[in-house]
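User: For my dataset I need records formatted as: sequence, then structure tokens, nothing else. Please produce one.
Assistant:
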Amino acid sequence: MKLKITILFSIFSILLQAQPAASDIDRVLSELNLLRSNGCKCGSKWMPPVGPLKWDMRLHEVSSRYAKYLAKNRHFDHVSLEGEDLGDRLDEIGYDWTKIGENLAYGYNDFYSVLDAWKDSPSHCRMLLDPDVTRIGMSKHKIYWVQSFSRSGPPAATYSSN
């Protein structure tokens, strides 16, 4: 009986981390990659065009878990109350990375509003246009947004609309 409950809990946990609809991923990637292909001014610094991002399911899962954690704990910081940062969260799941970054936001109801806020913030904007990151996963829980970026990771973890 305990094994059955454990299996059901594991399946439920996986469902909670479900991948967003392909149309939502395509919309996010389209907007972010349009920004990256055009470049933009982040504060006083011009960020030139850079290559596109690919959706990474494992980055989405880490973003989703952290957005839920932030909401549950009414916490808003890149470092958890236990002292873990994005690198720790990725190491915990065995994610292979060489460069990472994270954008957080709080209080925005839709993607376009939070994207505008990130573009208006020089540090968040520079993360969106960082040429050294090639993968992204993001999630929203209630009004907490988490975007996780990486340079590398397992090839099978990316999403492609092709």
